[in-house]
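User: Predict the structure for this protein chain, please.
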Amino acid sequence: MALNAQKKPILASVAALAGVSSPTVSKVLNGRDDVAAATRVRVQRALEELGYESPVQRRMRSQGPDMVDLVFDGLNSSYSLEVLHGIVEYAAAEEIEIVLSSITPAKLRNTDHEQWAQRLADAGRKGLLLVTSELTPAQLKAFERRGIPVVVIDPLNPPRSGLVSVGATNWAGGKAATEHLISLGHRRIAFLGGPEGAECSIARLHGYLAALMANGIPVNNGYILSASFRRDFGVRGTRTLLALEAPPTAIFAGSDTTALGVLEEARNQGVRVPEQLSVVGFDGTDITEQSVPRLTSVAQPLQEMGRAALRSVLRMAHGEELDSPHVELATQLVVRDSTAPPPSS
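Assistant: Here is the predicted structure, written as structure tokens:
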């Protein structure tokens, strides 16, 4: 039976519908973890069906600006700062407040998303932005049930049905980077990718492979290494590649940060860039102009990706339908000083 719009359901109504006690309903509302998962789901469905709004939700709805949560898997990279700049700029223009936090992928996987989603709902958040994160359908459903729109920038896992994501044309960027090196005369080209399961890294690898095959260059599996987008992997990966009997004359790194590690290890081994080794990065962050030599890189429109993600969250929060759940913005190869023809020897 439908409730009168003016009459707010009380805890007893929710408890009766869910088949639990009023104290159990109270525990769920307060995010307590001493409630069985199945019981929590029943209570949450009853809350939604009855349109129950907690005192905290009513207070947050009636005061203050709209707020969106923004979660990074780390804030120690130029990539993250560029994305953050775009989000904050757009938020200021729309008079939206951003609540910023950072969480490791492992901690994110082990987080109780039901509790997390309930906390956001109680706080009156308009949406959630995740950067380079991974969500399962069950985790995504926890936010959907509470009407909290979620957008992921550069998701690590392949976009699933219902997941709204913003990224760049990673395949095209990987192909452009590799074709640039081929056009300079390189044939021994290595690839240092990010996490093996990361969707963006897989797309960049496929672009690299497509360029090699299109130009009749055999794929050397020993030239393909994947681990992370970190600088230390750039160092370790380059050390491995340069120790090969026929080391590569060029390295395409899956991120600018990884490319910095390549440059560092090349210096340590006395290998001159670009005279003896060409290096291409990916992201197009400000470190490309600060490195020595200046780094050739595939530029992602990182600030626009941040703006597009927040724009999508706000549209969904207002009940609007998106043109597409997956947005891909164009990349652009920017040639600087770290690439040149291979040594004649």
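The longest strand covers residues 67-72.
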